[in-house]
Amino acid sequence: MLGRTYETQDCSAARALEIVGERWSLVIIRHALFRGITRFGDFQRSLGIARNILAARLDWFVEVGLMDRRPDPAGSSYHEYVLTEKGRELQPVIVALTHWGDRWAAPGDPPVILRHTRCGGAVHQQTVCHDCGQPVAIDEVEAQPTAHRAPTP
């Protein structure tokens, strides 16, 4: 089994993968974001995931602050797993990964189209410069260490 950590990497992407990089993780988050699923049984039925795997992922999401575990508001003995702000902020990651998958992993007609709820337009991710507001091409991005860190080879 693969380890969960990237101790040798001084990299925010590697740290993020320590949290959401396991199989099923982003798919569970996707269902919570775009399908509004919050209950264990609904996740299981919708995804066909083994109960032990789902339980471990949901417990992990609660532990790292991606979800809150709350009593069912209807008063049943069930619980809801509700995305926190930290969990909801994975939305652009899932949108970008979905578009990449539509193009490179499963070309053809995409299984879903992500739409803006207000106008119905298709949603797309775009990298934009914080300072000038212009779209940034892939070859116009470079990684620079922050001032307090030495560059890694």
What class, by secondary structure content? mainly alpha
- Give helix % range: 25-40%
Could you tell me the strand content as a percent range?
5-15%
Tell me the quaternary state. single chain
- Tell me how many strands there are: 2
Calculate the terminal CA-CA distance, rounded to whole Å: 28 Å
- Compute the number of helices: 6
Which tags fit this structure?
about 150 residues; mainly alpha; two-stranded antiparallel sheet; 6 helices; about 5% strand
Write up this protein.
This protein has helices spanning 12-20, 25-34, 40-47, 51-64, 85-88, 91-105, and strands at 67-71, 79-83. Strands 1-2 form a two-stranded antiparallel sheet. The mean pLDDT is 90. The protein is mainly α and 153 residues long. It starts with 11 loop residues before the first helix and ends in a 48-residue tail after the last helix. A hairpin with a 7-residue loop joins strand 1 (67-71) and strand 2.
